[in-house]
Amino acid sequence: MSTINIADVRVNGGTQSRAAIDRGVVSEYADAIKGGATFPPITVYFDGVSYWLADGFHRYEAYALAQVYDAPADIRQGTQRDAILFSVGANASHGLRRTNDDKRRAVQTLLNDPEWAVWSNREIARQCQVDEKTVRRYREEASAEKPQIAPERTVSRGGTTYQQNTANIGASSKPDQAMSEFGTAEPAPEEGAGQDAASALEEEPAADDPEAKVRRALARLTTDGLIDEVIGLRADLDDAKAKADAVTRERDDLRAKLKEATSADLGRALGNAQRRADTATGRMNEYMAQVKRLEYRLRKAEARVKELEEMEVVPA
Questions:
Q1: Locations of Polar residues compositional bias (predicted)?
Q2: 74 found inside a domain
Q3: Quick check: 2 and 70 in contact, CB under 8 A?
Q4: Beta carbons within 8 Å of 314's beta carbon, 6+ residues apart
Q5: Residue numbers of the domain that contains 121
Q6: Whole-angstrom Cα distance, residue 115 to residue 207?
């Protein structure tokens, strides 16, 4: 059985699917650990840089409380998203029984994700180990809470005032319509329009093109949702930058300590310090990559808002 130093395990990546940690249970587990009890291994996913905790959050907290830092672990190869997907179905048949709030959080984790939300209710129920009716109820609640825009609004453009149908704003286009860069439906070319018109159309981006995924996600949003997305992206960007700065300081501090190390510091302590420094470097690189991704999404979302303002769909 493998073991892992809990200081190397990351628990801040959204992989926790429980609504809350039961501190009473943590205390009981910690006492049992101090008494020599053996617990099942925690489950972590390793992406080459970080170890993401997917199952065993109460045990993780208990080992920390008991000051036992090497915990048995089931270490699997996978990404942070793999850990999240595993987490939503964890504890369905073992460990501390899930509460209704735990189940709700697990389901909403998938419903709030642009990729997983398109799954059927049955598939989400299978992943979260809940009843299909439960998923359907939460999905309907989420849909009811989304802001609605009026089916028509008055638009003035070029000296002409007219009623604009807003029913399809933010909705996917019909199969026989091409999509503009930001998901706005464009009419299909008329039959016999000629080779020039056909050649003017850009090739559809590959399904796994990151830019195409961003455009599709933005296109699904209502105008109000798009504005909320911009606000949220700005907050996420500030948070990611702050985390990157903090990890950079942590890495620099660890490197400074390594330089000051003497021969008496060699061995396990020095090795652990080097490993922590390497981990901090990996986390810093990860946060910087996240910053770049958020900056890109923010630029796209702001461009979409500006486009809608020029169309006078969104008030400037």
A1: 157-175
A2: yes
A3: no
A4: 223, 226, 227, 305, 308
A5: 98-162
A6: 12
Concatenated DSSP letters of 39-52: -PPEEEEE-SS-EE
Give how far the C-alpha of residue 50 lies from the chain's centroid of Cα atoms, to the nearest Å: 16
Q: Take residue 55 and report the two structure tokens written for it.
A: 């199952």
Contacts for 293 with CB less than 8 Å, ≥ 6 apart: none
Q: Which candidate, 236, 238, 214, 218, places its Cα nearest to that of 227?
A: 218
Q: Is the Cβ–Cβ distance between 14 and 113 less than 8 Å?
A: no
- CB neighbour list of residue 221: distance below 8 Å, 6 or more residues apart: 170, 229
Q: Which residue has 């700005």 as its token pair?
A: 234
Q: Residues 203-228: pLDDT tens digits?
A: 444 545 656 666 666 666 666 666 66
Distance CA 66, CA 34 (A): 6
Q: Is 140 among the domain residues?
A: yes
Q: DSSP character for 7?
A: G
pLDDT in tens, 229-284: 677 777 777 777 777 777 778 777 777 776 666 544 555 566 666 677 777 777 77
Count of structural domains, the chain: 3
Same structural domain for residues 302 and 213? Answer: yes
